[in-house]
Amino acid sequence: MRNIEKIGKTIGLMIAIVYLLFFQGNQIFEWVLFASILLTIGIPHGALDHLLLNPKISNKGLVKFILKYLAIIVVYLVVWIFLPVPALLAFLLMSAYHFGQSHFIGNDLQSKKKTTYLITGVFYLSVIFWGDFDNTAIILKGIVDISPLSGFGWPIIIGSFILSMILLVKNSYADWRIFSLEMVIIGFLLYQLPLLVGFIIYFGFWHALPSMTEEYQSLKWFLGRNKLKNFIKRLMPFTAASVGGMWLILAIFYPGSEPEELVLLFFILVSLISAPHIWYMNLFLETKKN
Ligand SMILES: CC1=C(/C=C/C(C)=C/C=C/C(C)=C/C=O)C(C)(C)CCC1
């Protein structure tokens, strides 16, 4: 694990512990935490997709890239409008795969790679959702009533944990002990945390920061002398576009919406920009390994 990743995970762990000890129920802390992680690492980690496969992309290439990205967004939006439940299921499955994949950056699994990513992601998403099932259900009630699923939490959490252990052993994964210890400790903490706090800590420090570190490593040869400064500069345009676009749509829907409806709309917007991101990130990470 790279240093920055270790530092990030330590910070994430500290924030979780400090929250549980001193800030439980403090909504200001929760929203400030959510917004700051989202704006500094969450959104920016997906803002370099256009450079991942081709760091020297031409203007024509960039236009083609943007059109493809927008086409995926539009198709997925149509699915959300006409088939919201399948759209939600697809979002959860691709997120689980994508999150699981970031646990194995720099490690090339030999056996059942995609299943291992998926099951690892299912474990982490499950502890986050079932750890605060009531709030997950409240947010999702605009799409589907998930209350009949409340008793499935532990079988899914324990099942996905055991399955990922089996998959790691099959892969002769050298770090499987550390990996499983991390699953137990972080899984336990995420389960205790409120939905959005658990989600943003995991998303920021276990997914976005390791992904961004990998992006930096691969792009640093093209960043000239002030590498970090140029890296941040290149993150800016698409970060600003995503934040601005989401903010505008949320502001339009703000009057007359309940808070949980806005949270759901926010995650639907996240899903729309995540779909092409997951696709490009997968191409980037897997072609790097081959
Ligand atoms: C937290 C949360 C949800 C799921 C969010 C997910 C799955 C986000 C995935 C983001 C990704 C994949 C970002 C890309 O890098 C629900 C179930 C919609 C509603 C309840 C709160």
Automatic annotation (TrEMBL):
It is an enzyme of class 1 (oxidoreductase). Keywords: Cell membrane, Dioxygenase, Iron, Membrane, Metal-binding, Monooxygenase, Oxidoreductase, Transmembrane, Transmembrane helix. It comes from the Bacteria. The chain crosses the membrane at residues 7-25, 31-48, 69-97, 117-140, 152-169, 189-209, 235-256, 262-285. Its cofactor is Fe(2+). GO terms for biological process: carotene catabolic process. Its main location: membrane. It holds the Pfam family BCD. It catalyses: all-trans-beta-carotene + O2 = 2 all-trans-retinal. GO terms for molecular function: beta-carotene 15,15'-dioxygenase activity; carotenoid dioxygenase activity; iron ion binding; monooxygenase activity. It is found in: Cell membrane. Its EC number is 1.13.11.63. The keyword Cell membrane applies. It is a multi-pass membrane protein. NCBIfam families: blh_monoox. Belongs to the Brp/Blh beta-carotene diooxygenase family. Catalyzes the cleavage of beta-carotene at its central double bond (15,15') to yield two molecules of all-trans-retinal. This is Probable beta-carotene 15,15'-dioxygenase. It comes from Cecembia lonarensis (strain CCUG 58316 / KCTC 22772 / LW9).
